[in-house]
Amino acid sequence: MYDWSRFELRMPLAAALQTIYRSWATAAGLQTWLLREARFNSNEGKPRDPGEPVRPGDQFRWQWYGRAGELKGTILSANHIDELSFSFGEAGNVSVQILPYNEIFVCQLVQSGIPTDEQSINSYHTGCMKAWLFHLANLKSIIEGGIDLRDHDAALNKDENNPWADLSRFPAVPGNNGA
User: Fold this and answer.
1) pTM for the full predicted model
2) CA 129/CA 131 separation, integer angstroms
3) What does the pLDDT look like over 62-82, one tens digit per residue?
4) In which order are the strands placed within the sheet that holds 104-112?
């Protein structure tokens, strides 16, 4: 039986381990391939510099191109080498591992704790999986070729039928959102 509460994706990346890790673990890195804006605050509430790696317990606020609102969350783990995880609103938690494979690395993403009602399956399991596939491909494109596949023109992304167009649909989860 298929497990709708989680999914796993992998993307091979021909880049240095530290380059891949910093793409995930710094605001500056995330803004090159995933986000329009990423802000991290330490446990003490102090803003992290864009190039400073995140630490467990850091709170974040993320905004995407072409999407209204922001996602708030918490860094759950970060080993500063090849693993990190974070909360992802009502859509569960995301963990990332960077694994060696022959002469390259594989970025493995697991999203788990996804609710399994019909709406969550459509919005979070299917919707998040499609979004992560695109963004992992964009990470590969940026790292290996320098081409950003994201559309930075918000006017072209207006679509009331797009469940990702309004992040306010992802209400904060008490105790797991950095609020």
Assistant:
1) 0.86
2) 5
3) 999 888 889 999 999 999 999
4) 6-13, 104-112, 93-101, 83-87, 71-78, 59-63, 37-41
